């Protein structure tokens, strides 16, 4: 047995560091040429993550109804039935240009509080899905029977009927739906102040997950394909949906339970008041007054489900406490720790035009750009290793070493492919590494090496090939769309026209 020893070649190819390594191995084992990759600090619009524009119904000039509820319970004062304005292609393209790939669409359906959705309304929704697809973005959806200043919701029978009506349109457009917010119930679809008593308002059931709410969750999970999630406003309601009592946390998901299509694996979390108070606007409430109970749960559970929401305004939700834009709850140090420990993926741009906006504070304090980059996943290549030559019909070996600089992991399925592109003809051959890479990619703050043993097709034409890495959307309608592919956080690797990440390796395929 003959051996060779490691050596280093100090080359710089387009900003990518090249080296070759052969530790003592069999003579027949090919040498692996390695590349190291510089880090990018750019914010770019990767799919299903990041800051998100909020598409809400237009606010009327007069709002004669009360905030969420009326002291006299006179919900008839809410008479606003406007539809949302349709999404516009030019606007969505502008959002992508600012590094945003998600639109939070909260649909105002007060017009249908006591009747079926019309075919005209379903066509309006289809227009929004078509526009989002054309623009290269995805939507997160919430339906509510009220919005500006709150108001009444609908009876349970109407809600369940509407969900059944929406099921075909969800199924048809699942490619551009990132996830669905539970919605429908109560003020703003946030599962509180239900005019129809759906959440037990004013009874011993208030705050608990009622039988009506369980039916609504069942209906939403059935209406969506099993590879999409529903997010709930309060973790304690999720606990009780799965059989807990007294708001006690359930056991967090494990890797063996994650992403298997079960109901347990398909419910994530929405937080509409991230910096409002120490209880996060009531998100962490329980009768034991233990504000650490739910955070401990989320710090494990959210590795495998989506966490989204809005920042809110500091301390304004606590009775008698005035708004305080300088609150330590909204400081960069506190916020970065919270986003990281709870694995945040999507944050709506709430109140962005206000001079006291927390988004504006983050810009002034210097952490806004970091938050924009790190929301969701942010995969980065550290090193790759491949041979210079391979034989068609035989095994191609290689290594990918990656890290995740983001706050979270992917929550929807995603393919991982090695792409061989013939240098003369440009013909592309895709070699599937993983059908679903969610549990295979590095988790936030970790590094992982993926060993490749890929079979080269026996029909592959001999020649010289470039090696590229692709993380395409698994939906056939989006698989070849570069806007829906994942860009790695490295300089000089992304090809915007193809959606591939160029590894810099050249491979000669022999007959």
Structure description:
The chain has 511 residues and is of the alpha/beta class. The chain contains nine helices and 20 strands. The protein has helices at residues 89-97, 119-135, 156-172, 211-223, 235-241, 293-301, 332-341, 358-365, 368-374, and strands at residues 7-13, 16-21, 32-36, 50-55, 102-108, 138-144, 177-181, 230-232, 267-271, 307-309, 346-348, 379-386, 389-391, 395-404, 416-422, 428-434, 447-455, 463-470, 494-495, 500-510. An eight-stranded parallel barrel has the order 4-5-6-7-8-9-10-11, surrounded by four helices. Helix 1 (89-97) runs parallel beside helix 2 (119-135). The radius of gyration is 25 Å and the shape is elongated.
Short structural summary:
This protein has 511 residues and is α/β, with parallel strands linked by helices. The chain has nine helices and 20 strands.
Separation of termini?
27 Å
- The amount of beta strand, in percent, is 15-25%
Contiguous helical run count: 9
Oligomeric state of the chains present here? single chain
From the helix content, strand content and strand pairing, which structural class follows? Answer: alpha/beta
Low-pLDDT stretches:
1-14, 20-27
How are helices and strands ordered from N to C?
EEEEHEHEHEHEHEHEHEHHEEEEEEEEE
Largest sheet: 8 strands, parallel, barrel
Helical amount? 10-25%
Kindly state the number of beta strands: 20
Alpha-carbon Rg, integer: 25 Å
Q: What overall form do the CA principal axes indicate? A: elongated
Average pLDDT confidence is 91
What is the topology, as strand order, of the major beta sheet? 4-5-6-7-8-9-10-11
């Amino acid at each position: 047995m003959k051996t060779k020893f490691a050596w280093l070649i100090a080359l710089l190819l387009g900003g990518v560091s090249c080296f070759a390594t052969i530790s003592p191995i069999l003579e027949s084992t090919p040498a692996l040429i390695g590349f190291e990759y510089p880090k990018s600090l750019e914010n770019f619009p990767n799919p299903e993550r990041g800051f998100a524009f909020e598409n809400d119904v237009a606010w009327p000039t007069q709002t004669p109804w009360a905030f969420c509820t009326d002291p006299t319970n006179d919900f008839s004062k809410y008479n606003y039935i406007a539809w949302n304005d349709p999404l516009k292609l030019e606007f969505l393209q502008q959002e992508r240009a600012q590094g945003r790939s998600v639109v939070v669409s909260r649909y105002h359906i007060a017009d249908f509080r006591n009747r079926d959705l019309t075919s005209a309304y379903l066509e309006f929704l289809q227009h929004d899905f078509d526009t989002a697809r054309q623009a290269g973005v995805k939507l997160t959806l919430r339906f509510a029977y009220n919005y500006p200043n709150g108001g009444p919701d609908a009876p349970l029978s109407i809600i369940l009927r509407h969900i059944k009506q929406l099921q075909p349109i969800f199924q048809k457009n699942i490619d551009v739906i990132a996830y669905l917010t539970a919605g429908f119930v109560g003020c703003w679809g946030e599962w509180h102040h239900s005019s129809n008593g759906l959440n037990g308002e004013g009874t011993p059931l208030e705050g608990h997950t009622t039988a009506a709410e369980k039916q609504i969750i069942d209906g939403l999970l059935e209406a969506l394909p099993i590879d999409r999630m529903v997010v709930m406003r309060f973790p304690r309601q999720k606990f009780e949906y799965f059989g807990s009592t007294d708001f006690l946390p359930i056991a967090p998901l494990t890797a063996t339970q994650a992403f298997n299509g079960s109901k347990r694996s398909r419910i994530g979390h929405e937080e509409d008041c991230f910096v409002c108070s120490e209880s996060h606007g009531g998100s962490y409430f329980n009768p034991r007054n233990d504000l650490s109970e739910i955070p401990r749960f989320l710090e494990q559970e959210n590795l495998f489900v989506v966490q989204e929401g809005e920042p809110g305004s500091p301390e304004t939700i606590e009775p008698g406490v005035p708004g305080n834009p300088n609150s330590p709850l909204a400081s960069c140090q506190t916020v970065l720790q919270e986003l990281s420990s709870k694995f945040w993926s999507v944050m709506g741009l709430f109140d962005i035009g206000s001079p006291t906006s927390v988004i504006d504070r983050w810009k002034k304090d210097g952490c806004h750009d970091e938050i924009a980059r790190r929301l969701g996943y942010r995969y980065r290549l550290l090193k790759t290793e491949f041979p210079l030559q391979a034989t068609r019909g035989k095994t191609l070996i290689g290594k990918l070493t990656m890290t995740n600089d983001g706050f979270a992991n992917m929550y929807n399925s995603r393919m991982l492919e090695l792409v061989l592109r013939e240098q003369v003809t440009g013909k592309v051959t895709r070699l599937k590494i993983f059908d679903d890479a969610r549990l295979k990619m590095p988790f936030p703050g970790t590094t992982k090496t993926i060993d490749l043993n890929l079979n080269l097709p026996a029909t592959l034409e001999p020649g010289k090939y470039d090696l590229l890495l692709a993380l395409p959307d698994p939906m056939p309608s989006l698989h070849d769309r570069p806007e829906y592919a994942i860009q790695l956080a490295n300089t000089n690797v992304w090809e915007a026209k193809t959606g591939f990440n160029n590894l810099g390796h050249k491979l000669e395929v022999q007959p």
